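Run log // design_07
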């Protein structure tokens, strides 16, 4: 029995050794992907076998919840060795959800410079430039010669960045003055001063700038990095393209979730209690709007009792209107997020979408009217359904534009449950138009 247990332990040990041999040659992102679903103890066992700088890279790639659990449970001495190996923005992100007591214990073990940088970053809202920037920036004084600037950059190992191609020029008060390209340091006369060769027109972003605004700038100009300045023009950090990629993914996910009434932060690993708490309020709102549509239908109860066949067309009218509204809404919300619609351009967008809604309404309305006529054998019913469909498609297009633009005008996120509001409009308007037309036909055309 004892021999069998020893054999099993040896097999487990051999399997772990093979795994570590394979992991050591993998990219940190791939390692993180492979171990993120393991038990916390197994993840810690893997990380114990790797050097601090490697663990720092892997930790950055792990989901936030896993990062927090690791930092809460790893030996304090190990954590204090790993954190200094990380860029300041990654360290701040990793420590952002750690309990206050544990955070204080970790800070007490870190070098004063790291504590200062991380504390500064944690003070900024996480969706601003200050919240996503890193403090490590290659900066030289404008009064330096190129020779002195090159030597300063070469020696500044703490600010080493694999993806940095710019060196920023600042004055004695650390105010941003310009930018040097690396080729200037390599090929220009080293006796020239930084101020002689720097590009003075350098784009920067305020430390308070919203991350979505920054993402739009990166997308428009294809920057690899942008300097961040405070209210006095002082260079305080750097936003890099890898940070912005995360922002773009985060903002797209947030918009997609908010359009259907989710929190914008929910994941498949989110606890069911929090998921339910986030979803139920919006479902209750949706229930209220459904009762509104039901109330509209109840206004025509006599018509439906006399011609019950009309009820068969209600899902078609509401469903097609909802789909058309969602198409318009998706385009408009995304354009608003990318800054493609200025405040004075909404009328042009509305006009274009009304035309699209009219064309789609004519085509879809004619199709559904023809099918209705062939199905029920009544031309007037087909005409009523066709006209109601066309008018509802136009209403859907208008709602798809006006709802998100209206929300933005009152400083509310345009993606916030817009689809629920648009669907309400298409259901209420569609049902009202269809049943009103049907009632008129009943009373005056004797269908």
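design_07 sequence
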């Amino acid at each position: 029995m004892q021999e069998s247990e020893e054999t099993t332990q040896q097999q487990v040990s051999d399997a772990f050794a093979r795994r570590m041999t394979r992991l050591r040659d993998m990219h940190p992102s791939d390692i993180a992907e492979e171990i993120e679903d393991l038990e916390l103890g197994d993840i810690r066992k893997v990380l114990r076998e790797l050097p601090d700088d490697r663990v720092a890279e892997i930790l950055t790639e792990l989901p936030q919840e896993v990062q927090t659990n690791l930092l809460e449970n790893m030996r304090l001495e190990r954590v204090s060795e790993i954190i200094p190996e990380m860029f300041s923005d990654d360290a701040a992100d990793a420590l952002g959800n750690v309990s206050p007591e544990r955070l204080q214990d970790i800070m007490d073990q870190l070098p004063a410079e790291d504590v200062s940088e991380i504390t500064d970053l944690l003070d900024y809202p996480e969706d601003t430039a200050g919240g996503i920037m890193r403090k490590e920036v290659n900066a030289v004084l404008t009064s330096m010669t190129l020779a002195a600037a090159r030597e300063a950059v070469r020696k500044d190992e703490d600010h080493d960045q694999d993806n940095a191609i710019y060196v920023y020029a600042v004055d004695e008060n650390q105010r941003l003055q310009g930018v040097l390209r690396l080729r200037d340091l390599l090929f220009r006369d080293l006796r020239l001063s930084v101020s002689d060769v720097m590009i003075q027109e350098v784009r920067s972003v305020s430390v308070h700038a919203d991350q979505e605004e920054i993402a739009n700038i990166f997308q428009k100009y294809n920057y690899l990095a942008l300097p961040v300045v405070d209210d006095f023009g002082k260079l305080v950090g750097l936003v890099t393209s890898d940070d912005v990629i995360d922002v773009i993914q985060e903002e797209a996910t947030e918009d997609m979730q908010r359009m259907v009434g989710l929190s914008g932060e929910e994941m498949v690993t989110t606890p069911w209690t929090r998921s339910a708490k986030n979803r139920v309020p919006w479902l209750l709102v949706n229930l209220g709007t459904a009762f509104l549509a039901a109330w509209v239908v109840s206004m025509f109860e006599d018509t439906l009792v006399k011609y019950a066949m009309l009820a068969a067309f209600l899902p078609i009218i509401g469903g097609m209107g909802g789909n058309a509204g969602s198409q318009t809404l998706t385009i408009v919300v995304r354009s608003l997020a990318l800054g493609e619609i200025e405040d004075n351009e909404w009328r042009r967008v509305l006009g274009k979408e009304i035309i699209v809604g009219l064309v789609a309404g004519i085509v879809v309305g004619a199709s559904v009217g023809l099918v209705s006529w062939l199905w029920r054998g009544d031309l007037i019913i087909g005409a009523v359904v066709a006209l109601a469909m066309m008018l509802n498609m136009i209403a859907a297009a208008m709602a798809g534009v006006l709802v998100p633009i209206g929300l933005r005008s009152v400083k509310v996120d345009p993606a916030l449950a817009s689809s629920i509001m648009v669907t309400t409009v298409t259901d209420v308007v569609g049902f009202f138009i269809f049943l009103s037309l049907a009632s008129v036909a009943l009373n005056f055309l004797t269908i």
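The two ends are 89 Å apart (CA to CA).
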